[in-house]
Amino acid sequence: MATKKKNKSLLLSSTRPVSSKNPSSLSSRKTQSIVRAHHVLRKKLHKATIQKDEDAVTDILGKIEAAGGLKTYQEASIQGQSTHRGGDSSKMLMKWVSEATIHPSSPLKESERLRMLEVGALRIDNACSRSGLFNVERIDLHSQHPQIKEEDFMQRAIPALENEGFDIVSLSLVVNFVSDAVERGEMMKRVGSFLRHKSSADGIDGLLFPSLFLVLPAPCVTNSRYLNEERLEEMMKTLGYVRAKRRMSVKLVYYLWKYEGQARGAMRVFKKEEVRMGGSRNNFAIVLQ
54-110 pLDDT, tens per residue? Predict the structure, then answer.
């Protein structure tokens, strides 16, 4: 049986897409079909692995390879999130920041910029990277670019000093790639340890920072058997956040959660409990324990 750490690395690193220097010209519908089918197979693989069903694992791995394997999935996924298809989720963050920023008359100096930790970074040319407002540190479990550090967020050392922390942590389409509800909760709990106590840049509205930029597929909160927006907000409140911004689109939900510091005392526990009934619901859940 594989260790827990090995399973997590498999699930995260092999489902986070990597950059492609020569992406093929797949249609939008085709990329969506490839990504959707791959996700279904990964979920089945995770379940079979937990159940120690070696025959099922072998069969599912064969289906993944027959569909083109990880390479085909990665090419489809990177295209689906490309800027020319409107897939740069950081555009929404920049819209919110621009609305709350006193724009400087000259470009910010390196020392004046906000520090951002982008977990699961795909590319180095997104809206935040081009804005001049952020010093971005990018990490991913399966980096394909020299400016994206290959690192597991769950193993990353917690900052020892205030100036080593970040003004914002980005988890854009990251939490949903973690297949285990408890591990999702552990990831959410860990973010606060990386945030500074106050914003580090002049001219930035303190109502927004320090913060967590969280992006999820909309069905994670609109059609989940175990999670809705009310429950997510209660979880975030327990972790020390208040919701500063929210935007729901057809496919995605964007949040900016302002961190105010976790309350003292025992943390409230959130188990995997049903909040919606119906056979058409998905099973996405986050567990805090």
Answer: 888 788 888 878 877 766 665 565 555 544 334 789 999 999 998 887 666 667 788
Contact 282, 219 (CB under 8 A): yes
Strands (E), the chain: 114-119, 134-140, 149-150, 168-172, 211-217, 241-248, 252-259
Q: Reduce the DSSP state of residue 91 to 3 states and report it.
A: helix
- Across 24-156, where does the E strand assignment appear? 114-119, 134-140, 149-150
* Residue closest to 122 by CA, chosen among 87, 94, 154: 87
The residue among 256, 249, 19, 251 whose CA lies nearest residue 125 is 19
In this prediction, residues 23-34 reach a mean pLDDT of 65
In the block, tokens 């800027």 appear at 83
pLDDT-based confidence at residue 23 (cuts at 50, 70, 90): very low
| Whether this model's pTM surpasses 0.90 | no
Token pair belonging to 145 = 């670019």
Give the Cα separation of 207 and 259 in Å (integer). 10
Cis, bond preceding 217 (omega within 30 deg of 0): no
The answer to whether 183 touches 8, Cβ cutoff 8 Å, is yes
The token pair that represents 182 in the structure block:
């408890």
Residues 6+ apart with CB under 8 A from 199: 114, 167, 206, 208, 209, 210
78 vs 86: CA distance, rounded Å: 12
Q: Which structure tokens are listed for 102?
A: 């006193």
- Only one residue has tokens 């930035």, namely 204
Structure token digits, residue 156: 């990353």
Look at strands 114-119 and 168-172 and give their pairing.
Answer: parallel
